[in-house]
Specification:
The structure holds two protein chains of two kinds. Chain A is mainly beta. Chain A is built from no helices and nine strands. In chain B, strands 2, 4, 5, 6, 9, 10 and 11 form a seven-stranded mixed beta sheet that branches. Chain B has a four-stranded antiparallel beta sheet with strand order 1-3-8-7, with no helix packed on it. In chain B, a hairpin with a 5-residue loop joins strand 4 and strand 5. Classes of the chains: A mainly beta, B mainly beta.
Chain lengths: 110, 114
């Protein structure tokens, strides 16, 4: 499993775009990059996954540069309900388990 | 389709008591996991299973045992509870192995050991 590094916490205001960057310098060729979101008192939930370039869904966008040594989760026009912990995970099907780090605690202010 | 369910939602134990947490999934997933989450911390993997009848140790297995007798169920046991096991326990399941497969999480069990 590739080690990931992400900020411990971030603050932002409602209506702004939030970008959370994750570093994964030792990412392997077959590794995917996956982000989970965890609201208080709930289990994490999958939000987006990518391998290279850009992936977008109804919740977020994921930007991955060509060297894949980092990735950026982008949340457009955040609201108070986006206050959560966001986890960046890197690995592939050869890994039989997932290791969650401490994630990034995002706090949205009114 | 209930997804992943956990029983019970809350429990208070005295030191030395035992209990079993039940996780059930109705998605026919092969892989199931037990995590614990302490306040302000990320999730730590306790044990996991890659299929019916199999179990394996995660990051923090000491003090816990697990069983996967049926594909849809994954049980986590505490034989002699300790205050250090006060935590929120999450169960998860997935179709495939590793981070490239989405894990589906249950609502959690909040355990307090006094």
């Amino acid at each position: 499993l590739a080690k990931t590094t992400q900020p411990i916490s971030m603050d932002s205001y409602e209506g702004q775009e939030v970008n959370i960057t994750c570093s994964h310098n030792n990412i392997a060729t077959n590794d995917y990059i996956t982000w989970y979101q965890q609201f208080p008192s709930q289990g994490p939930r999958f939000i987006i996954q990518g391998y290279k370039t850009k992936v977008t869904n109804e919740v977020a966008s994921l930007f991955i540069p060509a060297d894949r040594k980092s990735s950026t989760l982008s949340l457009p026009r955040v609201s108070l309900s986006d206050t959560a912990v966001y986890y960046c995970l890197v690995g592939d099907t050869r890994d039989d388990k997932i290791i969650f780090g401490k994630g990034t605690r995002l706090h949205i202010l009114p | 389709n209930a997804g992943v369910t956990q029983t019970p939602k809350f429990r208070v134990l005295k030191t030395g008591q035992s209990m079993t947490l039940l996780c059930a999934q109705d998605m026919n997933h092969e892989y199931m996991y037990w995590y614990r989450q302490d306040p302000g911390m990320g999730l730590r993997l306790i044990h996991y299973s890659v299929g019916e009848g199999t179990t394996a140790k995660g990051e923090v297995p000491d003090g816990y045992n697990v069983s996967r007798l049926k594909k849809q169920n994954f049980l986590l046991g505490l034989e002699s509870a300790a205050p250090s096991q006060t935590s929120v326990y999450f169960c998860a399941s997935s179709f495939g192995t590793g981070p490239s497969y989405e894990q589906y999480f249950g609502p959690g069990t909040r355990l307090t050991v006094t």
